[in-house]
Amino acid sequence: MPFPRPPxxxxxxxxxxxxxxxxxxxxxxxxxxxxLSYRRLAERxxxxxxxxxxxxxxxxxxxxxxxxxxxxxxAALSAGHPVLLVPGDSDSTIRSLTTAYDPDVVARPGxxxxxxxDERRRASSHTLHPDLALLLSTSGSTGSxxxxxxxxxxxQANAQSIATYLGIRDTDRAATTLPPHYCYGLSVIHSHLLRxxxxxxxxxxxxxxxFWEEFRRARGTSLAGVPYTFDLLDxxxxxxxxxxxxxxxxxAGGRLAPERVARYAELGRRSGWEMFVMYGQTxxxxxxxxxxxxxxTERPEAxxxxxxxxxxxxxxxxxxxDPEIGELVYSGPNVMLGYAENPADLGLGRTVxxxxxxxxARRAPDGLYEIVGRRSxxxxxxxxxxxxxxxxxxxxxxxxxxYCAGDGDALALAVLGAPGAIGExxxxxxxxxxxxxxxxxxxxxxxxxxxxxxxxxxxxGKPDYAAVRRLTRPAPxxxxxxxxxxxxxxxxxILDRTDVTEDSSFASLGGDSLxxxxxxxxLEEALGGLPTDWHxxxxxxxxxxxxxxxxxxxxPESPRLRRVRSTRSWHTRPWNTRRSLETGIALRAVGIVLxxxxxxxVFSLQGSAHVLIGVAGFNFARFHLDWGERRExxxxxxxxxxxxxxxxxxxxxxAVALTGLYDPANALLLNSLLDQGTERHEWHYWFVEAxxxxxxxxxxxxxxxxxxxxERRYTFGVPLAxxxxxxxxxxxxPEVAPARFHLGPTVVFWLFALGWAAARATTxxxxxxxxxxxxxTMPGLFxxxxxxxxxVAAGLTLLxxxxxxxxxxxxxxxxxxxxxxxxxxYLTHFxxxxxxxxxxxxxxxxxxxxxxxxxxAVATRVVRWL
Length: 866
What we know:
Among the domains are: 15-373, ANL, N-terminal domain (Rossmann fold); 379-454, ANL, C-terminal domain (GMP Synthetase, Chain A, domain 3), CATH 3.30.300.30; 485-573, ACP-like (Non-ribosomal Peptide Synthetase Peptidyl Carrier Protein, Chain A, Orthogonal Bundle). The model is unreliable at 1-10, 418-427, 476-485 and 547-578 (pLDDT under 50). The protein is of the alpha/beta class and 866 residues long. The strands form nine sheets. Strands 6-5-3-4-7-8-18 form a seven-stranded mixed β-sheet, sandwiched between helices. It contains 31 helices and 31 strands. It comes from Streptomyces montanus. Residues 478-553 form the Carrier domain.
């Protein structure tokens, strides 16, 4: 049954969105795929506006710096449809705001990456005020139902004002370095479109080399950034870049330290561009003040003067002793209509005439305004306005008592007691940091956590937030960075990352089981000992573990110092230095030696490959699931899969071509699926196939948001349930096992799930349960091979119960090399040892290990380059 045709209501529309065609054939959008003129952009906007229809409807748009998303945004603004703009990469925010406001149209990416229009109804179910044009969140990407209502006049006036004081010309081209659901990023788009200037649409970070290639190729003239953007610019060597067309750099979204403002202003003076420091809030559409660039070096601490068309006044504050300080109140045509907290508020007109910013300010004798503090507890960090009370409530829901306060460019958290529990999981500072970061949309580096035996209170019993800020700040020796700088360089070198900070952890930087071994051994050399969960701890916390040497903290050695030390006489080295070795590393090292030796055979002691299946599940939990948001977790997982598949397929393909022993199915890692028969050589690579199958299937499952949330909530329960499912395959109830029963992926998956569960087991009861399942189900897996059964049971029991083993420094180094090369030794040894015949088994073993280690060195570098 067709929808009844509703009555036509002629909307106002935003003038700059309706006048795009007036700029003719000037370049409007530059994307990696195409360059779009204003004429062509206007045609696409008009076509989309026609589809939206003449009757006003509420359009929820998942914003992104993509042409399709921008076309929908402009079409809605031009036709008068109010837009609820939300983060395009946050499914939870889209769901929560869709539930809260019941939009009439939902525009979000489809399966092919283009934006789809889901027209839920032909007419709006809401009463929409004629002036309403845009709805933005007041708190970044947290999904709060409290929204800012902006009018057509707000958008036009603010874009006009910004274009005026920045001097935007139609020859300018600005890069979209900020997301469009953030008012600052959106203001860059609006102000440039108003003047017929070009937009370089990109979703790349300024830390990406490809971003600067796009920027130069498009002759970019304007860069916008929040304080964190400038941290990245410092890291990528922005000061030395040649950007001949750059005209201006703008900064807003939080306070940038005055000395950095002055430094960038001076850099701009030398390089031929201007530095604009700006101040604003979503409630003022975007901007309220700017600091004229000629004053940035002299007055970098000031926010400047009101934007054209706006004005400030200072309202006295009762608890403020200085009469020159008051709350900054702004007036202008860009002040919002008011807030919306539910759909009924969408029909309201103007409820706000001037904006009480909540900032305490003074007006200096030169007429410039300076922000001196906050009247409320809201904090603006990394461009997002954060409510500390909301953070405290979030942690309370997870069983954590904490005080939270903004402190400049960081969020300070004082947590009661030893790291407690979040749900059923042991929580440490890094886990709390990631939890808050995911909720608030902040980078983890912007959150400081300190665990205290007692939370600080004032004499009245109220929280002492000044003490929270003070207690969470790093000590002077910590701030100096010794040895944090060396640790950061160590992480950057091994993981090939350029974005390492003191708040980075091995897990957050994308470390996996292939790089874990080298990192753990190098850290143990540097720090003298490591906790079992070091891979989740930030560098800041690991630094405190550094062993004192002559009263000073020992820093990790530089590569040069390590090379010098390695040339010293052997008798000067501490060969008897006692160390510990992680059980997983020990099992990988011993296991690969036993596998190769049993295949030659030097002796026959089989079962190690099945132990390594369990170790693989253990490492999967530690290195692939300790991540923040779902998409980043999946990207990390698929990269790790590639690091297994690429060298495996390359080597096995050569073996297929040169030996004639293998079927092409082996090269494609399909032998287990096609069940090629019982020939022993056809099954040489069953372990690699099983590992890849498990990782791929789990990556697909984790891409489902509901399953991803389920795993995060029940970290032990999910792998335990998969273990139970795996036992169905263990006993081959569906009768799909291959001819070589104990090598089939469906048969051995339960070992992988058991290793995963072992990594998540935190109590004696949980470990006992896993041990009981192991001992009850191992018998019968290998027919008439009790020694093989016992070896697997012993190895996995060790993995469940014993996190580290006593060791020596030299043993650690040998184990580290073997463990990190174990996959490559497994791949290559089948083609190495037959050349030695049966007369030289030890030589065959040695050669197999050496060649595998060599292939590991080559493959690791090639895959990293790829």
